[in-house]
Design a protein that fits this description.
- The complex is a heterodimer of chains A (177) and B (604).
- Chain A is an alpha+beta fold.
- Chain A folds into two domains: 1-54, no CATH class; 59-174, no CATH class.
- Chain A has helices spanning 6-23, 96-112, 117-122, 124-140, and strands spanning 59-68, 77-80, 145-155, 165-169, 173-174.
- In chain A, strands 1, 2, 3, 4 and 5 form a five-stranded antiparallel sheet that branches.
- The N and C termini of chain A lie far apart (78 Å).
- Helices cover 61% and strands 8% of the residues of chain B.
- Chain B is built from 29 helices and eight strands.
- Chain B has an eight-stranded mixed sheet with strand order 1-2-4-3-5-6-7-8, with helices on both faces.
- In chain B, helix 13 (239-257) runs antiparallel to helix 14.
- Chain B is elongated and about 95 Å long.
- Classes of the chains: A alpha+beta (177), B alpha/beta (604).
- Chains A and B meet through helix 1, helix 2 and helix 4 of A and helix 2, helix 6, helix 7, helix 8 and helix 9 of B.
Chain lengths: 177, 604
């Protein structure tokens, strides 16, 4: 009888176990994601459902406006602009992380939104986006301001035949001196 | 010339004769190239490490509050800007080590470091991470194991693991897209290409007015992805064409969508495809164990599904039954405590169960007689008529009411969500006197006309319902997580509720009801309701009001249609489901129901 190498068996069993969990965590309907709860980090269990079942077909936009100390509101301006594509992005695209990061944070925020304003304002996604906006304002604005407000909107990107649509407007956020 | 073409074609359909060490080395190098670029991209962005960035642990750390405290302490330590920068520098060194010719022990350590560092830095970079990070982690882990246990069996297991994950990644991506209407019609191609994030203006312009071309390219991609596992069915003869297609696919994606790291990440898994599909002798223990475990799980799931169905059918033994004029049979529970007490019939919502009312029934039981039942198609009730509209359900309920003895006290009809509309319609149609209608966070026929939020939510519901009944029928019910509301129900109701929740019939009936309701709601030209001359109680969950500005108006209208004979109650902090299932909210809801009925009985 052929002797089984215990290390090889352990490696094969571990691989088979991981494959098993991965296989049963890919249902097109995310309601069947029970096995994903074993991955507390949300990282080591692959999710192969890229751009499926429905891909995102809109761009997300983060805008903000400020309130001056004498009560004057600025116009809305884009806090972060999606990086325009260049040929070098084929091998080098550091800003993709920020573009994708905002997309992920907004997706998190929109998932909390139906649970009401209290949940929304307390969520890490809200605090992260709010801090992201605050940091941009502080970098770009050299005069003191009383506070700010941000807005999330979607657009159809290069297809300009559709009007951008507002997703969410934050409450006014006072800015400590 | 013909011989030359024949030779080329023959060569294109032969296995790739790569050996174990060559496969491992190529996988390591391509994977390390992904890690190298990824780490360098992080280090190139100074803003990544500033306070208020998307990786600021002080802001995002709460997303990992569920982890044990020691893990959170580790993550907080490695997420500090200086620490994470140092780890990224280490990742570059490890990646370069793997690109060079180095001894196996060094390679094991380098791959291990890349895998471990990717895992601990992931939470910090979670906002902004992508599929290439997932793949690079998988290949680095497999390579570390293969180098750390340098026996042929262990290395084959690692390479089989990567090969099977690679085939699964393409297959899942392809098959899951098939469930999306925009991929089937081809609209997804110009749809994605029009975005600044992942698109390309020229490609969008090419596809936007050429639906046939868009459909052909979407279908071509789905065919390539979905059929990728055929590499394992053709004993290596399809390996070269599929690998060539995969490299071409990722090159196009890198060029058009700016996903360059995906080329080396997914490319790093392809050598394992080549090795595991060629004729070289190797250990097949890992795929044998993997497929055996999947097959056993599928078989067990099917048996569990049949047993669940049998338990649901057996619930009939504990319930009364009525056959309706439609041919449907309804299973109901009549809790009759006092002859002189009013009787409340409770109508559950769409995709819900009579067990949702368990906490309320327990609370109001001493004062009222209560009837709960499964609508036709749900649980043990049979829908043989095929009718799932509000009118169909109302007519069945009328037959149930007719089957009750005349001695039953004054009748009240209550309904949650869509059940509220069934209760209302029944009150309008029945000849038996109805003493009151109770709406429990009820739907409104005009909700899609009046509420923009609910109109948008419809799309979400459609996709949430997609493929659920068929998946449950083939035994995948165990993959549905146990919903939190089950555990807030009284103990005696939980087991039946979970069985019903994971039963395909609940989802099939819900989907049919939603199809009918959506059609009826969309046909309405205005939100106004016909008047009904019966007193009513409209109970609203506070969170429902807060989530949708139009809800106040919808429930005002429900109340207004009862000719100024309606009462309004808001259950503080409750949401649409917890108004029934949370013990505290259910008690408040029950108190409101009892007060209303007592008031009605006093005044009549």
């Amino acid at each position: 009888m052929k002797k089984v190498d215990p290390f090889a068996f352990a490696a094969a069993a571990a691989g088979a176990g991981m494959f098993f969990i991965t296989f049963f965590a890919q249902h097109p309907n995310r309601g069947f994601d029970r096995l994903r709860t074993v991955d507390k980090l949300g990282f080591w269990l692959p999710n192969w459902r890229f751009f499926a079942p429905e891909p995102a077909q809109n761009d997300l936009h983060l805008l903000h406006r400020t309130l001056s100390l004498d009560g004057e509101e600025s116009d809305w301006e884009e806090t972060h602009q999606t990086t325009r594509r260049r040929p070098t992005h084929f091998i080098w695209f550091p800003d993709r992380r920020t573009d994708k990061g905002l997309f992920d944070a907004v997706a998190d925020l929109m998932a909390v939104a139906p649970r009401g304003e209290d949940h929304l304002l307390a969520s890490p996604a809200y605090r992260t986006i709010s801090a992201f906006v605050r940091r941009r304002i502080r970098k770009a604005t050299h005069h003191p301001i009383a506070g700010y407000q941000f807005m999330l909107a979607t657009s159809t990107g290069y297809d300009e035949t559709n009007e951008p649509e507002e997703l969410l407007v934050s409450p006014y956020i006072p800015l400590e001196a | 010339m013909a011989e030359c073409v024949a030779e080329l074609l023959k060569g294109a359909f032969t296995p790739i004769n790569i050996d174990r060490e060559g496969t491992l080395r190529l996988m390591e190098r391509l994977s390390s190239a992904t890690h190298l670029v990824s780490a360098a991209e992080y280090l190139a962005r100074k803003s990544e490490f500033e306070t208020g960035s998307l990786g600021d642990w002080g802001l995002i750390g709460d997303r990992y509050a569920h982890l044990p405290s020691w893990q959170r302490r580790v993550l907080a330590a490695v997420s500090r800007p200086r620490a994470s920068k140092a780890i990224h520098v280490g990742r570059i060194i490890a990646a370069v080590t793997l690109l060079a010719r180095t001894p196996p022990a060094v390679r094991a350590a380098a791959s291990g470091y890349l895998a471990l560092s990717a895992a601990v830095l992931y939470p910090r970079g979670n906002y902004g991470s992508d599929g290439s990070d997932q793949v690079a982690f998988q290949t680095a882990t497999a390579a570390a194991i293969a180098r750390a246990i340098p026996t042929p069996g262990a290395q084959d297991a690692a390479l089989w693991y990567v090969g099977l994950q690679s085939a699964l990644s393409y297959a899942v991506s392809g098959w899951a897209k098939l469930f999306g209407a925009s991929w089937r019609t081809g609209k997804a191609v110009p749809g994605v290409m029009r975005t600044l994030s992942y698109g390309n203006k020229r490609i969008w312009e090419l596809f936007k007015d050429r639906p046939r071309l868009a459909r052909m390219s979407a279908h071509g991609m789905l065919a390539f992805e979905g059929l990728f596992p055929l590499v394992y069915a053709a004993r290596g003869r399809l390996t070269r064409p599929f690998i060539a297609a995969a490299v071409g696919f990722h090159t196009i994606i890198a060029g058009t969508m700016g996903l360059g790291r995906f080329l080396t990440a997914f490319g790093s898994m392809l050598p394992a495809i080549a090795y595991t599909t060629n004729d070289r002798p190797k250990s097949n223990l890992m795929p044998t164990l993997a497929f055996a475990s999947v097959a056993i799980a599928l078989a067990c799931g099917t048996v569990a599904s049949a047993l669940r169905r049998s338990r649901i059918t057996r619930q009939c033994d504990r319930l009364d039954m009525v056959t309706c004029s439609s041919g449907n049979t309804l299973s109901f529970r009549h809790e009759h405590h006092r002859d002189d007490a009013p009787t409340l019939i409770l109508e559950h919502g769409m995709l819900a169960t009579p067990q949702h009312f368990a906490a309320i029934v327990d609370h109001i039981r001493p004062q009222l007689n209560v009837i709960t039942y499964h609508r036709a198609g749900y649980g043990p009730s049979v829908n043989s008529s095929g009718g799932y509209s509000t009118d169909d359900s109302a007519e069945d309920l009328i037959d149930l009411i007719e089957s009750l003895p005349e001695s039953v006290g004054p009748l009240y009809l209550g309904g949650h969500s869509l059940g509220g509309l069934v209760a209302r319609r029944t009150a309008q149609l029945t000849d038996r006197p109805i003493a009151g209608v109770i709406y429990l966070d009820s739907s409104h026929p005009g909700q899609l006309v009046i509420s923009t939020g609910q109109r948008k939510g419809v799309e979400g519901l459609n996709s949430a319902l997609a493929f659920v009944p068929s998946s449950l029928r083939v035994g995948l019910g165990w993959l549905l997580p146990r919903p939190a509301w089950i555990d807030s129900l009284p103990e005696h109701a939980r087991k039946d509720a979970l069985d019903l929740y994971r039963d395909s019939r609940l989802w099939k009936a819900g989907a049919m009801e939603w199809r009918n309701a959506r059609r009826a709601f969309s046909r309405r030209r205005s939100g106004r309701l016909d008047p009904i001359d019966i007193p009513a109680l409209v109970i609203t969950a506070e969170q429902t009001l807060r989530a949708d500005n139009a809800q106040e108006r919808l429930h005002d209208d429900l109340a207004g249609s009862h000719n100024n004979r309606a009462y309004r109650v808001v259950i503080r902090s409750a949401d649409h489901d917890s108004i029934l299932t949370d013990p505290e909210h259910a008690a408040s809801t029950g108190d409101a129901i009892v007060s209303f009925i007592e008031e009605m009985e006093r005044t009549t």
